[in-house]
């Protein structure tokens, strides 16, 4: 096959190039094709990573590029890991991550399970449910700030309608206890359809004959659900959790638009905190160390998770 | 033949003259925030274009992103802006990092005298280091935090009578911050003209600089000082003095008692909306917003009154300085033309027109004109406010200092975490760390 390609190449290639290509082994030819990609990866991924590690060991500030660069060793790392504000930020991120994943998986799977049943208007409902994830996060953040407005917000009125309390008596984004939930609600509203779609793909990939065999064996619906549906959808579900986990770990735009990290710092997720350190305070060395810590955390967690995912798939 | 030669020479001369004037005409870009005064400046600058032959372009960025966008531009040595109307706090960093052109020689050569401008604006917008004759900008737009109130509500006889009975004094412009809080409490949740209204709109914004610009008005008047006057960067006992603590407690009390529901993240535009929609009796905001109230259908036509930020418990009275100076960006390739613009802008007749169009001129010949106080309903309040201004740090690390303040103040005032003393003690620690990093401590 490769020989065919090379002989076809020979027809149009100039003499010198033709001779060179003809002299290349398959392995060398593979390298010729791979090298541009490797160079690109090195330039846009590996080099910046190494450069960031280097910067993290200095006191460099990008807004004072002419200042003398001082090597500070691991001092930036030490300051970050002993900074209670950063731990608060990590805690806020963990809270956001945990609850968005739990809610999105539960609601997303339930919706997929319902949508998977054949009923009239199935396609229309699928389209309607998927709409929120097609919107821009900045737009979603902006209009949810209006929905959460205590005096005119529909959300507050809906809560008031159900519970009977005064809609102006609570502020979702201004109250320390409610603000973390306000961002969880919006993210869940926006991204549950994504989880639903992945789960739907999983549900539709289960062959009907398995359920038919279970019916022959007189397995109850409940048993079919736990022994057929869940195990076969699990790899898809885990993939959805991985995608949403990575996305939500770096959540920025939606939360900035909704709460700006407030009230106080209660919704200041690590990505917002990092942006403030890097591009408002211009502590480039410090924020590089912060970025490396976050990178190691995400990389470590993702690696463990991917291993678990592979194990589930092999079962 | 001779005639042909003459014609060719004339044609060449005309072409040469035309191309010379083309070469001299520059395409200047002025960068500023996107707000009403910027629109007025666009109109004003048409005179400059007509006189100089240069053309002007404008790059306006909304306030919440203004600092981010423009400081990135300066820090990266960008050539987008030839002229920058940058915030007052940028002056230290922009001077020390070489973003702005030093203007002393230019001012001397063109008879532009800094003593012709309001003193506070020269210190606030032009000088670095502060209180030294090193100028990096021409005061362009004077601004200060002040208050507006619903004059028409204050004049209602039934409200006046009720207020007098409750507080033992007339319902009028408050002389102290304590009186201001009484008025705000009086209006909170009250029915006025068939609508529920609230006491006051104040700054609480978390993301950029809002809550700092607001709370500082209370803190200054309660005795807060940035540092020991005799020992620079010595902050213990000044930033967290008992007066400063009481000032921050006051601001939280005002937020808790008297703001409309959902006021946890409001700045200039939210204040404007709350006031224009008839939601609040009192509103804290920068003076630049005042012309807009006069022309508004709901609150214009004499319904709005203005007053200076009231005094604290010991009679000290200060207000937070806003406003900006205009600078020439050192990375610009058209510095000559940019300086020409500044020379034009500094002229008294241009400054007078600037004020007439809604720009807050800083030139004394405009503001000290006997007709000035009567020129607009808010003119006297603007002058009185400019006499009592204080500004935030203008150090190169101002952004770090500001972010620490935003976090500490919002944590205490809005989120209700800890005490005012803890917030200010924390702020001293944050600021000390920043100055240590800068090698100033």
From TrEMBL, chain A:
Keyword Membrane among record annotations: yes
Subcellular localization, as worded in the UniProt entry = Cell membrane
Please list the residue ranges annotated as the ABC transmembrane type-1 domain.
Answer: 90-305
User: What are its GO cellular component terms?
Assistant: plasma membrane
What CDD domains does UniProt report for this protein, alphabetically? TM_PBP2
What SUPFAM superfamilies does the annotation carry?
A: MalF N-terminal region-like, MetI-like
InterPro entries xrefs: MalF_N (IPR035277), MetI-like (IPR000515), MetI-like_sf (IPR035906), Sugar_ABC_transporter (IPR052730)
- Mode of membrane association: Multi-pass membrane protein
The transmembrane residues are 28-51, 96-115, 127-147, 178-203, 224-246, 288-306
One GO-annotated biological process of the protein:
transmembrane transport
PROSITE patterns for this protein: ABC_TM1
Q: Which UniProt keywords apply?
A: Membrane, Transmembrane, Transmembrane helix, Transport
Superkingdom of source? Bacteria
Similarity comment text for this entry: Belongs to the binding-protein-dependent transport system permease family.
- Protein name as catalogued: Sugar ABC transporter permease
What is this organism's lineage?
Bacteria, Pseudomonadati, Pseudomonadota, Alphaproteobacteria, Hyphomicrobiales
UniProtKB/TrEMBL annotation, chain B:
According to the record, the signal peptide region is 1-25
Give compartment(s). Answer: Periplasm
Q: What is its main location?
A: periplasm
Q: What is the lineage of its organism?
A: Bacteria, Pseudomonadati, Pseudomonadota, Alphaproteobacteria, Hyphomicrobiales
User: What's this protein's name?
Assistant: Carbohydrate ABC transporter substrate-binding protein
Note whether Transport occurs among the keywords.
yes
According to the UniProt entry, the coiled-coil residues are none
Of which family is this protein a member?
Answer: Belongs to the bacterial solute-binding protein 1 family.
Q: Which organism is it from?
A: Aquibium carbonis
What cellular component terms from Gene Ontology apply here? periplasmic space
Keywords for this entry?
Periplasm, Signal, Transport
